[in-house]
């Protein structure tokens, strides 16, 4: 088995700590010499070359080998870094999480150490000293080196961010079976898990909705309209900004890169476009960056910004002088481009003119108009005791919408009396 010198690895998706089932197996009747050394459940395995030599937890925990005294013929083994033959008792390793969409696969190398012994003929055996976190790791060893690997998934966001692990190296005669005479040495490993950018910002809603009045001023923000997101990563990996990447081709909206507030950036015309669907993206500052998107649907609210339009601004009607009161004289029609109550059009007579006489008192009008239909009828006969002899009457008609801010248009009815 080859040794590994990597002290870091990258994992390419978030994963929780999971211990493979193979970590805990029960064995029986596997001892040497007629089964007198039967192993119990929870063994720690050692790899010697290609030969697997089991060592029980009780043996691994037995620290008596640490207290035994060296002799002139038996010296204590020790650990050293790869390429640096100097004994170490404390080592720092870094474990960098990363993401690939499947999670960290157990067996990724955390770091490698070398065992050494000045005695001739001694064979080294390595152990992972049992602890509360040792089940999260494994060791792969050769005759001279040992690699610490992960046994399952380790996630910066979901697990501890630092671990304390100890490895032990034993020396013993290759032909012997008893550890009672062995010397050993430990190395304490401080393992720090570093965050990787394995989470994209997540929006708090699946879709956002808002409404803006048609006459909203530039920079308007209705009801503190804002999108919000969160990122589980740390540092720059957890910092992000907002942008509009779709649905804003005319540039009528803008978004605060940090606040997420959506504001107007142009003018609106309800009659031309009354609905916008923006695609907002949150992108973090990690390398490579991660992002997510959300829809922001904005409805434009119509305001009364269009006056009525008379289909005929001047209507000419010939009427017999002796026609009876109530007779239909003419009809006006109008349209309004607004919607709802803003689109309704009402009519009224403003004044009548005949000769040099101008009448503005509605009680004196000879013509009346239906407020809703625009039908003009004769209100009073054209022949009366006062000798109404004019041959033409000009009637000023007003078309207006029934809103608080009323817009209006004017037309003229010319009545020729025959």
Describe this structure in words.
With about 425 residues, the protein is mainly β. Helices cover about 0% and strands about 40% of the residues. It is built from two helices and 29 strands. The strands form nine sheets. It has a five-stranded antiparallel beta sheet with strand order 4-3-6-9-8, with no helix packed on it. Strand 3 and strand 4 (about 85-90) form a beta hairpin. The longest helix is centred in the N-terminal third of the chain and has 5 residues, at about 55-60. Residues about 1-60 and about 100-105 have low confidence and may be disordered.
Averaged pLDDT: 78
Share in β-strands:
35-45%
Number of β-strand runs = 29
Give the C-alpha Rg: 46 Å
Major β-sheet annotation: 5 strands, antiparallel
Strand order of the largest sheet: 4-3-6-9-8
Shape: rod-shaped
User: How far apart are the first and last residues' alpha carbons, in Å?
Assistant: 120 Å
Figure out the total of helices: 2
Low-confidence stretches: 1-58, 98-104
Estimate the helix proportion, in percent: under 10%
* Main structural class: mainly beta
List descriptors.
single chain; 418 residues; mainly beta; five-stranded antiparallel sheet; 29 strands; 41% strand
What would a concise description of this structure say?
The protein contains 2 helices and 29 strands.
């Amino acid at each position: 088995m080859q040794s590994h010198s990597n002290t870091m690895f990258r994992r390419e998706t978030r994963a929780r700590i999971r211990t493979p089932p193979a970590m805990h197996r029960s064995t029986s009747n596997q001892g040497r010499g007629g089964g007198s050394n039967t192993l119990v459940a929870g063994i720690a395995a050692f790899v010697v070359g290609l030969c697997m030599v089991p060592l029980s937890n009780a043996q691994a925990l037995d620290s008596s080998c640490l207290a035994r005294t060296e002799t002139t013929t038996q010296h204590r083994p020790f650990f050293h870094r790869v390429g640096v033959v100097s004994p170490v008792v404390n080592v720092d390793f870094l474990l960098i999480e990363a993401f690939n969409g499947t999670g960290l696969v157990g067996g990724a190398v955390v770091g490698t150490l070398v065992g050494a012994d000045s005695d001739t003929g001694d064979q080294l055996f390595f152990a992972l000293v049992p602890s509360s976190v040792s089940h999260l790791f494994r060791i792969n060893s050769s005759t001279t080196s040992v690699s610490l690997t992960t046994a399952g998934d380790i996630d910066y966001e979901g697990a501890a961010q630092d671990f304390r692990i100890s490895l032990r190296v034993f020396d013993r005669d290759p032909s012997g079976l008893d550890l009672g005479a062995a010397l050993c040495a430990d190395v304490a490993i401080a393992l720090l898990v570093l965050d990787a950018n394995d989470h994209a910002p997540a929006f708090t809603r699946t879709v956002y909705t808002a409404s803006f009045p048609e006459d909203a001023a530039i920079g308007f923000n209705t009801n503190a309209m804002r999108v919000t997101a969160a990122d589980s990563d740390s540092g720059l990996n957890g910092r992000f900004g907002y942008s509009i990447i779709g649905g804003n081709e005319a540039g009528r909206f803008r978004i605060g890169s940090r606040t997420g507030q959506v504001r107007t950036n142009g003018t609106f015309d309800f009659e031309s476009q009354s609905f916008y669907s923006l695609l907002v993206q949150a992108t973090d500052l990690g390398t490579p960056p991660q992002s997510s998107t959300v829809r922001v649907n904005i409805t434009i609210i119509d305001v009364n910004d269009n006056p009525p339009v008379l289909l005929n601004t001047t209507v000419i009607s010939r009427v017999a002088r002796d026609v009876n009161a109530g007779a239909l004289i003419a009809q006006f029609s109008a349209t309004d481009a607004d919607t709802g109550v803003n689109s309704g059009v009402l009519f009224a007579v403003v004044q009548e003119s005949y000769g040099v006489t101008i009448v503005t008192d509605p009680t004196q009008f000879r013509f009346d108009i239906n407020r809703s239909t625009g039908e003009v009828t004769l209100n009073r006969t054209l022949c009366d005791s006062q000798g109404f002899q004019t041959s033409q009457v000009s009637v000023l008609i007003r078309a207006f919408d029934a809103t608080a801010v009323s817009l209006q248009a004017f037309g003229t009815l010319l009545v020729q009396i025959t």
